[in-house]
Design brief:
By secondary structure, this protein is an alpha/beta fold. It folds into two domains: 194 residues, 2-enoyl-CoA Hydratase, Chain A, domain 1 (Alpha-Beta Complex), CATH 3.90.226; 47 residues. The protein is 39% helix and 17% strand. It has ten helices and twelve strands. The strands form three sheets. A six-stranded mixed sheet has the order 1-2-3-7-9-12, with helices on both faces. Strands 4-8-10-11 form a four-stranded mixed sheet. Strand 1 and strand 2 form a beta hairpin.
């Protein structure tokens, strides 16, 4: 691992792994990474930083607390009338739930990911979880509402009827069931979550970044648009890919039996 980059605050740590992977770690372990204004602002800034850095191809969102990924909103902040600080204009809740992101994000979840924590995981593209992880939206048990994407992203991620049950009861599901339902990409022991997430990120980062980005643009919209609309988006994405230098480098590297040297252009 590279050294931590000291920028802004310590509520979210930024670390480079190799040349193309960024690891962002939620870092309020004493309050189970509950979201306050400082964490939201920090995460919002780091999302933008990773988007603007062309050398970063994949981002991992992890936790500094091995027992809890994120407990959701910091209720002490809400009780003080500062609920509006838990969101940012560009990123929404935690500076992340609604942020525009073109690069793949992997949630590395250890322990509980409930309420807003579950919503952060659902906002990522892939999830690697510990075998003791728990996922759920308990807001209805507290007279609240999972408004950071949970109530519409969960039914897209797992079968509809099961998602509706989980939303209406507020009960959590364990990692084995979440994996069986297709919510999780990997389930591993807690001490292997970070290395497994990095290995998945490395498997993505070796590919042409423009191809990955344009493919994800269409894939992320697959449940929202019609086949005809998706075909139009696919044609546009393919055109951008085939105009790139990397679209020529890939076949050439294959013919020359060598690793491709992607430029992202």
């Amino acid at each position: 691992m590279s050294e931590l980059a000291a920028t802004l605050g310590s509520e979210v740590l930024f670390e480079r792994h190799g040349e193309h992977i960024a690891l962002l770690t939620l870092n309020r372990p004493e309050v189970r990474n509950a979201i306050n204004g400082a964490l939201a602002s920090r995460l919002d800034a780091l999302v933008k930083q990773t988007e603007q850095d062309d050398s970063i191809r994949v981002v991992i969102l992890a936790s500094s607390n091995a027992r809890v990924f994120c407990a959701g909103a910091d209720l002490s902040e809400i009780s003080k009338g500062r609920a509006d600080t838990l969101s940012t204009p560009d990123g929404g809740f935690a500076g992340f739930a609604d942020a525009k992101r073109s690069k793949p994000w992997i949630a590395a979840v250890q322990g509980f990911a409930l309420a807003g924590g579950c919503e952060l995981a659902l906002a990522c593209d892939m999830i690697v979880a510990s075998d003791d992880a728990r996922f759920g939206l308990p807001e209805v048990k507290r007279g609240l509402f999972a408004g950071a994407g949970g109530v519409h992203r969960l039914p897209r991620a797992i079968p509809r009827n099961i998602a509706l049950e989980l939303i209406a009861t507020g009960d959590p599901m364990d990692a084995d069931r979440a994996y069986a339902l297709g919510l999780l990409n990997r389930v591993v022991p807690s001490d292997a979550v970070a290395e497994t997430a990095i290995a998945l990120a490395e498997a993505i980062a070796v590919n042409a970044p423009i191809s990955v980005r344009e493919s994800l643009i269409v894939a992320r919209l697959s449940s929202e648009k019609s086949d005809a609309e998706l075909r139009i988006l696919s044609f546009a994405g393919a055109a951008r890919v085939f105009e790139s230098e990397d679209s020529r480098e890939g076949p050439l590297a294959f013919l020359e039996k060598r690793p491709a040297r992607w430029t992202g252009r």
